[in-house]
From TrEMBL:
Entry protein name: T9SS C-terminal target domain-containing protein
Domain of life assignment: Bacteria
PANTHER family reported for this sequence: LIPL48 (PTHR41339), SECRETED PROTEIN (PTHR41339:SF1)
Amino acid sequence: MKNFALTIVVSLLVYSNGTAQQEKGIIGFNSWLNNWTEFKPNKSEYNEPNQIITGTIAVDSKLYKKNVYLLMGNVYVTNKAKLTIEPGTVIIADAESKASLIITKGASIHAEGTETDPIVFTSSRSIRKAGDWGGILLLGDAPINKFGNSASANFDLDAAFTTYGGSNSASNSGILRYVRIEFAGAKVKGFGNFNALFLGGVGNQTSIENVMVTSSGGDSFEVFGGDVVLNKLISYKCSSNDFKFNYGAQVNIKNSLVIRASYLQSSSGSRCFYASSYDKKEEVDFSKKLTSITATNLTLVNNSQNIKLDMGQGLVREAMFIAENTNVDFKRTVISGFNPAIILDEKITINDDNLKKLKFQEMYFNACKGNIFLENNSNNEDLESWYGNASFFNVYSQGENIETFIDPFNDKRPDFRLNIGKITASKND
């Protein structure tokens, strides 16, 4: 591989109060993971459910913190109804019926927890594991690039309630804030896996921030079409893709975190990011918007204590896959411990026009076995020449996670902000 990065000391942003903050990766004077997250969810104990949610919710309804709810089967919020959930409410999803919550087009959810009182969706099993229950589906009427401008969520659900897509980019499907979704992603025979949170045709007036997905059997966050802003999301120990975007999704994602484990993989794909515009070209209208992702201040980390050993055993793959005819603009993002960092679809012709649609600027590539490659091509000199240009301000390092991040192996309150006191970017070997 061609080397470009000379030794660079990462600069500090020093504020008047004496606090320093790293500008790359997730940011904040304090760790925004504190208080509302849970990194040992199997040790959490909840009271027995005293209320059951099942069937269809067709009128405005509210769930209260004083109760513990059992979500049974596929529950549909319909008829433009609003489902409100109080801070601190616990919803236990029935594993036997592979429970799921579907907010249908025109309806909305207002699940607004707080930093000290988050809303929790978790499994009913005594020993919880990935794929115990379905997940949450949020369906709206923002544009989706499929012929007919609509699609249906195919997870063996009632087709009358699962269509999404329309013409209203500014539609509002509600609020998800300070919410944890644990052990979702059940496998459905003939349909693959649910996703922990599926956003289909969701509009930009919908608020989605401070959402943590833990141990999903399917993708943690999947966005098909729509026009969404995502902020402070966490995907932790997902078996499949952490983020998947498709069918003309217009996404602005910022200050979000992916924590992968080397030994959790899926035969259908296990990447931090998978971005495409279609599965088959004949599905979409090329006169309409294709998938476009703007991503700022993300941290994507394989949280291994021995990355080189895991790579040698074939346990580590790429952090991102970008398909053809997909626009991405990544800035100030950290990618640490992957093999390699980014793979571009082999159908992409490497020329100036295409590379201008695939922007990676002010990146921090750390402990990766290679940076950016074309799929099935081990010669990446052209890509290294392009993205290694000093005008992109990309930085390369080979540090261990324990040195790179403030406190990555803290079982209770890990801190994945960059450890600016120790980081020096070295020549990439």
